[in-house]
């Protein structure tokens, strides 16, 4: 973050506090020379407080209005969505949410128990819904409410960087429209909430490290509050996704260094440490509870995959290419503004004149990005998907923070400094793009192209069937160059306003086009998700055993689509049918009678339905 020696206000007051010419320390300053008596002082104080209260109410109302507009925009984009379409991730979170809402345990579509932090937020939607369609739509409403929280948080971050209220509000609204922020909220995925959690984590860290201009006791108490928020945000992130483990590790390191360097009062550091410990304990207890409920399902082993990949030196080139690819995607998906933010953070992190809060938060942001990229690079399997080399999803949670810093640079830097940092941003884009081309060149041409995994690059390249590294890079650089040129040529006031208008319009266009070209085709109701239950003759109360040999998509979707029922996925040749199951679904054999689908059928089972077109046989007991 840029240099700042000014007071960092409290979280709520930073949104609404008006600019006052001076701080009034006592009533005596109101009536110098005896012009006002005691009653006059009190009356004058009351008059001065009324405009302050009105301004606070006004700005709070304006921010709330922008937030609601952002929510409405998200809901409009998903108005036709009725079923999950990104398997097995969506279905896995929905199944866990159903259990947390008091529903029955069923098969985990992912084959492992996923973290419960995000399902905990959407569980109320499943608790009040009576069918999967209504439940999924309520989940999307929840996602919109969670995703739009990035707007007030971005506003606070910009105010801390001494950007005016009107400008901060305009930029914060633009941040809320970015495709990396909106796209994933259109699905039941953790990225609906994680960007806001990450930005809140960074803001609380900045507040914890800042020496506020208050009385000593008030300063310590305020910093302790920020410390509690810092610890809780990191611990909650751990309960949401494995990336949260990186936030917890970084948080522990920051607290230890801050104590050694005496950047933080011991009471505030203790509050942060206790909050972090409590949140981590809560995450572990939630994971243990879910593991106990899903006793037949193994826990996730992402951490072990990451460790194995890190220790395997033969994969060093592949992992390095993946790290560069993820960073390249992050900075191009923010059209170079994120790269400018990264360049500024790197400079502030090593600048001795910067405050400890600015230096530490800048360094923490960059370190966390690299660590998450490294963990993802080693943990992702070798499944020959092109997007594994330029993975978009895992670093998308840092896009708002880097974008905010990048736009603040447009406002704060003089022309020469801006051009210097812009050159650094272009160098970062070039190094990452060149590294990806050299280390993953053949894989970018021959691996499987998955459109859902490459939304931003497909939009920038204008091609939704093929990946284009160079074309995507040039498009992002063009948007970035226009913003920098406008700021440099038109001046910081007119130029930055023009750049923000351009970015806001481009964000709306990009998000809308990506929804039409990528999200909506994913969300078109398919027979497997919407018609199987009816075609198979399943009804409320059925307990279904489904064969491993059935189509993968069907096995992913049905644990959620069978909304009130219990489901198992098993190999009928090796595993016995659960004693409580009363329905079995197996693949039909072509040109053979239906009874041949289950050669060693136990006594008491009979064929209830055959669908040769879709290739399944339903047995009942």
From TrEMBL:
Keyword Plastid belongs to the record: no
Single GO term (MF): pentosyltransferase activity
Lipid bilayer topology: Multi-pass membrane protein
Domain of life per record: Bacteria
GO CC annotation: plasma membrane
Ranges annotated as spanning the membrane: 57-77, 135-157, 169-187, 193-210, 222-238, 244-261, 268-290, 327-348, 360-379, 391-411, 418-440, 469-491, 498-516
Keyword Transit peptide: no
Subcellular location: Cell membrane
Keywords: Cell membrane, Glycosyltransferase, Membrane, Transferase, Transmembrane, Transmembrane helix
GO BP, one annotated term: lipopolysaccharide biosynthetic process
InterPro entries in the cross-refs: LipidA_mod_glycosyltrf_83 (IPR050297)
The protein's name in its UniProt record: Phospholipid carrier-dependent glycosyltransferase
Lineage: Bacteria, Bacillati, Actinomycetota, Actinomycetes, Kitasatosporales
